[in-house]
Amino acid sequence: MTQFLPPNLLALFAPRESIPFLPPNDKLPHEKKRLPYGGLLDFTNTFEESYETPPPTRIETKEEKIARKAREKMEKAALQLEQDITLWDPNTNDKATTDPYKTLFIARLNYDTSESKLRREFEVYGKIKSINLVHDVQTGKPRGYAFIEYEKEADMHAAYKRADGRKIDGRRVVVDVERGRTVKGWRPRRLGGGLGSTRRGGAPGGKRTGVEERRRSSSRDRKRRSRSRDRRRSRSREHKRRRTRSRSAERRSERRPSRDRQDSSRRRSRERERGGGRRTGNFRGENEPHNNNGNGPPHDTFGINEGY
Fold this sequence. Notes:
By secondary structure, this protein is an alpha+beta fold. The chain has helices spanning 7-13, 62-87, 115-122, 153-162, 210-282; strands at residues 103-107, 128-135, 142-150, 167-168, 171-172, 174-177. Among the domains are: 93-186, RRM (RNA recognition motif) domain (Alpha-Beta Plaits); 187-219, no CATH class. 7% of the residues are buried. It is found in: Nucleus speckle; Nucleus, Nucleoplasm.
């Protein structure tokens, strides 16, 4: 069949040339001459001395690396905070209101709250001169707080007393007076100041810091959860006790009829035994020989004819 194949296919079946033999370049392992094995004494002079050995390098662990990064971050933030504090001056702000004693500060605003919405909500306390809704310098998004300047200081005080905690667009706002230009040494929250113990700078007068407050709140939550867990456990135990009592009562009620039946059957058997003995004694003629001739009186078994 192969003679009928075309030459291009016959070339595939043609044998290849044999691999030429090449002598090895080196001797075989068993033909080589090697030096005999010796000790290490001849090489000790090449070893380094103890004073030439470099000190061991200590590798930083994962926990130490995390602590180092956190420490560096805190130092960097503290340095940046100091620079921001030196550059911060509320009196040189071009966007600030004209009179700080007529200005009201509103925080925790909804990010979708507009200036017209604020005007409608706070115009009920007096005539508003200007509204400054603070936005982020880089992104242009609202920061969640604003400054409202009234034309009269009495209107500002009325809004300060009555508008705190008011709900605007689903969020309860915090109302305060402007303290940047009215209180000496005041710093905003972003610079470590502000009111309350949740600020980075903390509150004066020995108040608790934010970390302590969070710890206390977490401990209160744990105690509350443990109390609720104990109440649930006591309720489950009481429920189990009631269930076992009801089940035992049901079992006793189920056992009572069987015991009553046994007692009644025993009582009947005793009454039969006693009644049988009396009847054998009352039966007349039962132990006497029967008179089949008809001459004697007929046997009155139950004593009915005794009186006749």
